Amino acid sequence: MKKFGYQQANIDHTLFIKHRAGKVTLLIIYVDDMIVTGDDTIEIEGLQKHLASEFEMKDLGSLKYFLGVEVTRSKHGLFLSQRKYVMDLLADIGMLDCKPADTLIVENHKLGVYVDQVPTNRERYQKLVGRLIYLSFTRPDIAYASAPGRGLLFKKNSHLDLESYTDADYAGNITDRRSTSSYFTFVGGNLVTWRSKKQNVVSQSSAESKYRGIAQGVCEILWLRWLLTEIDFRPNHATKLHCNNQSAFENC
After folding, report:
1. What pLDDT was estimated at residue 241?
2. Which end of the chain is less enclosed by CB atoms within 10 A, N or C?
3. Containing domain of residue 76, as a range?
4. CA–CA gap between residue 113 and residue 210 (Å, rounded)
């Protein structure tokens, strides 16, 4: 790729970028699957011929399915879902005939270790949890709502402004009293990244737990700003960062 004039992105080493005549071509690869996109049709055709001369490959046309994610285009934008992945998962665990559920667990439910818990098949449980985590690629609400066809809609908006929301519960884990940080980030009005993770240390106040959540959100904002800059879509405005704790913001 480098010999063909492409630069490897510093922010993501699986992404290759080429700028030509005010246009951009992007290639992102995962093992032997790749996506080629951009607004330079001549360069894209040349790239496809170059790759075909080096490797045995097949052009599958417009993006419809990639790593378990289904892509549907419409006049409203792009819709991403994992319906086939969900159905395959249900078939593997023998729950193909189950009914969709509006709510899977109670909101604000406290998880923890209890002495009267019944042991389970650890390997099977970890495999299922791992697949559910991957399902959250298009279903950030998977813990609280379940329907195979749901997903994310990326609308055609006229801007690429970044906006981030952060939060953290204080001492939410009833076993070790650690808090859980979370954030979700919008680019151009569309949800693109989200995460929740238990903090490494015990926060001594609600403000401290929120502050740690803000710090993780800021790291994600910086990563996205650098990524957009590398593909020549540098943000024109400062990123809005939201948090519901005034004390945490005063300490920033």
Report:
1. 92
2. C
3. 72-152
4. 25
